[in-house]
């Protein structure tokens, strides 16, 4: 071996060994380092792939949740496609990019709740209005909250005999095309459930209904060894904790926490305070990820809390505190515009998803290097 080759060999060995050690270290501290955003539209695909390559991968993001809903060209139910939707070929570009960086990609379709937004009905209830839990509630031309109907977002009826035949076909297809071992079903902010005018659900326990739907989805995914992820707000008692009706439940679904399968991954989001409910989920036997949005200081606190939880509990409990995930509640296009300074909202000040994202992953890096 020549001197030059020897020096190169030593350099690469040291570099790769250091890199491997750093990777093992951050994996041991924060098993999940996630990013959640709406899937890009086809015209945004190149820019989003560039973002994965240049921003997510260097920050050691290892989980990407893409909110798909009906933005894919489904073959199983083409009637549910959005007018602008990703093709199979475009999805495979995303899959290949994530595989290159060892990023686990998880698609999301909102199930149960969030079947409308403001004055717009979702594709599922538009095409299959018979699935509507509250068909008597009409969407107003101008939406305001609060309103006499208690309408936030519509839900499908979990006991309708035909609903799962449709949504499970969508789930299977989207999981297949993304080559994934997990699926995110949303299931947050479900206000309409067990409605007293529903011929199937009226009079039934809302916790039983919610848990039944979670377990139904979970069991279907398990047939192909896939795991279910959901948002955690409906499993928190919003009244007793004072957390409120958005980040917690006021309609008694919170008791479902004792009825759902223990292998469901909980994405625990808190955006106005860094509430430490991850401890609650872990003590109930559930794995949990803490999810900030637009408050950088809270994201730093929540990241520190997650590490503290993992370091201060039994080995059994430790494995339930799975890590952190930045959430973005805009389309991919507006987020990328904000991130790259193309279009910035000066009124937002420091409280933006971009700044929160940077702060959270800076703190992850700092903690991984100092622990």
From TrEMBL:
Domain Glycoside hydrolase family 20 catalytic: 83-306
Highest taxon, organism lineage: Bacteria
Signal peptide (residue range): 1-22
Amino-acid biosynthesis as UniProt keyword: no
Record keyword Signal present: yes
InterPro entries registered for this protein in UniProt: Beta_hexosaminidase_sua/sub (IPR025705), GH (IPR017853), Glyco_hydro_20_cat (IPR015883)
Catalytic activity: Hydrolysis of terminal non-reducing N-acetyl-D-hexosamine residues in N-acetyl-beta-D-hexosaminides
EC number per UniProt: 3.2.1.52
Keywords: Hydrolase, Signal
Pfam families membership: Glyco_hydro_20
Record-linked PANTHER family: BETA-HEXOSAMINIDASE, BETA-N-ACETYLHEXOSAMINIDASE
Similarity field: Belongs to the glycosyl hydrolase 20 family.
Name used for this protein in its record: beta-N-acetylhexosaminidase
Organism: Fibrella forsythiae
Lineage, broadest ranks: Bacteria, Pseudomonadati, Bacteroidota, Cytophagia, Cytophagales
């Amino acid at each position: 071996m020549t001197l030059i080759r020897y020096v190169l060999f030593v350099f690469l060995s040291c570099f790769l060994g250091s890199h491997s050690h750093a990777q093992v270290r951050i994996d041991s501290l924060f098993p999940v380092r996630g990013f959640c955003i709406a899937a890009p539209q086809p015209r945004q695909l190149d820019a989003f792939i560039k973002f994965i390559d240049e921003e997510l991968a260097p920050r050691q993001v290892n989980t990407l949740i893409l909110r798909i809903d009906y933005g894919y060209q489904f073959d199983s139910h083409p009637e549910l496609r959005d007018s602008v939707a990703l093709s199979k070929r475009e999805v495979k570009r995303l899959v290949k990019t994530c595989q290159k960086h060892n990023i686990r990609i998880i698609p999301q379709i909102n199930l149960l709740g969030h079947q409308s937004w403001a004055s717009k009905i979702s594709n599922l209830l538009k095409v299959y209005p018979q699935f509507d839990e509250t068909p008597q509630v009409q969407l107003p031309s101008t939406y305001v909250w609060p309103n006499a109907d208690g309408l936030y977002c519509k839900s499908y009826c979990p006991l309708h005999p035909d609903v799962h035949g449709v949504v499970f076909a969508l789930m299977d297809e989207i999981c297949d095309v993304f080559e994934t071992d997990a699926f995110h079903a949303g299931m947050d902010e479900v206000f309409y459930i067990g409605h007293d005018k529903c011929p199937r659900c009226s009079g039934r326990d809302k916790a039983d209904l919610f848990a039944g739907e979670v377990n139904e989805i979970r069991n279907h995914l398990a047939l192909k060894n896939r795991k279910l992820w959901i948002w955690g707000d409906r499993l928190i008692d919003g009244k007793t904790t004072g957390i409120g009706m958005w980040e917690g439940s006021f309609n008694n679904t919170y008791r479902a926490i004792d009825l759902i399968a223990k292998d469901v991954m909980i994405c625990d989001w808190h955006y106005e305070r860094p509430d430490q409910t991850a401890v609650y989920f872990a003590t109930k036997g559930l794995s949990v990820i803490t999810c900030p949005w637009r408050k950088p200081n809270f994201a730093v606190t929540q990241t520190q809390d997650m590490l503290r939880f993992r370091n201060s509990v039994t080995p059994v409990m430790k494995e339930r505190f799975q890590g952190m995930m930045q959430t973005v509640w805009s389309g991919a296009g507006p987020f990328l515009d904000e991130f790259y300074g193309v279009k910035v909202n000066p009124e937002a000040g420091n409280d933006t998803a971009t700044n929160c994202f940077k702060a959270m992953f800076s703190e992850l890096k700092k903690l991984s290097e100092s622990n």
